[in-house]
UniProtKB/TrEMBL annotation:
Residues 149-242 form the PARP catalytic domain. GO terms for molecular function: NAD+ poly-ADP-ribosyltransferase activity. InterPro entries: Poly(ADP-ribose)pol_cat_dom. Pfam families: PARP. The lineage of its organism: Eukaryota, Fungi, Dikarya, Basidiomycota, Agaricomycotina. This is PARP catalytic domain-containing protein. Gene3D superfamilies: 3.90.228.10.
Length: 250
């Protein structure tokens, strides 16, 4: 898995944030907030994201039907652009402090994706996040990490939980307005893990990573840990940059 992450990071390192959609003003959108831009199936980014989703679906007993669309988050608006700058600043800081660390940044799935709308379900060329209070997904897409939009309580306290496993991310994907629907989505983000603290036991009292580290890396049961599939936890908003949305049918 570590070699896989390095391969993906090497391919994606030079891809700019929020600019892969190519269409700068799809459908004459009012560009005052971030929006989703559908990525063509022939685009290398689409191919790589599709491969990540398929290869990281680790449980052979659970299945998904097919991927319907892949979108990229295109950043617009003061709040989103400010978050983008904060992310870049934090990444530069980590790279400066950890010049030998080749995995300062990882591409990870969110373990907490709840939506109260149907964004992306129709496969349209672009989509604007909704403003419904309970739609955590759309708030995160606009870089609003307040409250429980991205955070949840877990084995390592209240933080932003992520994983390398698409199947695990699917287990946490919720459609609040259509609980029986077959169409779901997962969110992929660029995540600044810096120097992670490897943990083998639970510690629900954590509110930040242990001193000298930047994130939590939960070890899996096959090597003495407590989780079946990989988990990462970060505790600061500027460690996460929403990037891709994958729409699929279960």
């Amino acid at each position: 898995m570590r070699a896989d992450i390095r391969r993906i990071n090497a391919k994606l390192e030079h891809m700019p944030h929020g600019d892969m959609g190519r269409v700068k003003n799809p459908q004459n959108l009012e560009l005052t907030s971030s929006y989703l831009s559908r990525i063509d199936a022939s685009n290398p980014l689409h191919i790589e994201a599709r491969s990540m989703f398929k290869d990281r679906w680790l449980n052979p007993e659970r299945h998904y039907s097919s991927i319907q669309a892949i979108y990229e988050v295109v950043y617009r608006g003061k709040s989103a652009m400010r978050h983008l700058q904060q992310y870049d600043d934090y990444r530069s800081k980590l790279r400066s402090e950890q010049p030998r660390n080749r995995l300062v940044e990882e591409i990870l799935f969110h373990c907490w994706t709840r939506r109260a709308c149907n964004i992306g379900d129709d496969g349209s060329a672009s989509a604007i996040p909704c403003s419904v209070k309970g739609c955590n997904l759309c708030h995160v897409l606009q870089c609003d990490f307040s409250g429980d939009n991205a955070r949840r309580g877990g084995n390592w306290g209240t933080g932003i939980y992520l994983t390398t496993s698409s199947e695990k991310a699917d287990a946490y994907a919720r459609n609040l307005n259509d609980r029986s629907g077959k169409r779901h989505l997962v969110l992929l983000s660029k995540v600044l893990v810096g120097t992670p603290k490897r943990v083998y036991v639970k510690n629900k009292s954590l509110t930040q990573p242990p001193s000298g580290t930047d994130s939590i890396k939960a070890m899996t049961k096959d090597i003495g840990g407590v989780v079946k599939y990989s988990e990462r936890v970060v505790y600061r908003d500027d460690a996460v940059l929403p990037w891709l949305v994958i729409i699929y049918d279960r």
